[in-house]
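For practice. Supply one:
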Amino acid sequence: MKNGLFRFGFIFTIFLLFIGISISPSIIGNVEQVTNPSVDYFSINSYTENFGSLAYWSFDEGSGNLAHDYSGHGFYGAINGASWTTGYSNYALDFDGEASNVNLDLYSKDLGFNKTDDYKISAWINTESTQSGVIYMMTYSSPMPIFYIKFSPDGTLQMKVQSTDICGLIINSTDSYNDGLWHYIEGRYYGNTVNPMMELYVDNELAGNDSDWLCPMSSFQFKMAKIGMGTYDSEFFNGIIDEVKVFKIPSTPPEKPKISGPASGKKETEYPYIFNADDRNNDNVKYIIDWGDGTTDTTGFYQSGINVTVKHTWISDETYNIIAYAQDEHGLNGPNTTLSVTMPKTHIYNPIIQLLLKMLDRFPFFEKILNLYNN
């Protein structure tokens, strides 16, 4: 009797072991851990990396003919004819309205910007002049593309970017600022593949904005850059300029998308998956998805940082790797994220008797062992 029970227990133990081996367990998908390290929003390129500002001329030297760039990028300006005077903060440069300027031509490509970049320039100015005068200008020799902020003869301000003869944005302030007082001027350009936007602020109040189609332009197209005059030797500024700062925020690719959804399921059943990627430039993004079965999907553009649901059906019992990445509206691709999904080949849904019959059918030697036991 004891021997019989022992043999039965031995056979039953082997049977359970084979059940564990033969039946695919419930699979938990491996979602790649997505980490988003802190990225300097103003990081530019290998030459001007990891700085908040692209250029900063404080004009606090008080003497000499060189305007130091305190951003650390080395964009030193050659002072021509401008004299040192008391500024809004410490020293400043007084431009005579005839020939004085700060020449930045050597760094025009670095100081320039692409159509899709974000760009900002600010300065403190003080003038009583009734002549047209450029505060800051960058151009190609044609002269387009061109970007500038300048005074008009009536004391109003004009900000302009133009990439070709037919493509440009322009802002004209309604108020005049040639009153002999200090004014803080800030020009902002928000890049976009279709319709960029410009804003002009004076003393932290919006003085005007514009948004329209702009033909493509690139930073390397800018050949000249000047403070206090037009790059084509005209429109010399008559007044004081201080604390000139330039910021540039280039387009960066989206971050890794997070993928959430079932990690296992049944073939020929539709399952929803959620994709979500952040974009540092707040650009819209679309998702390119490889489902691992030879099929792909590409979504439309959505606001970055929101959940986008895409459904898919697999037709075979296999393990699949979903590989997805986000692409922004400038065509920049972010890194991939992978999610493994399994369609189990065998499911634990049958009664024990049915399982036993399947095991006997799959492993004939079990039947021989049982026959020995019965004998």
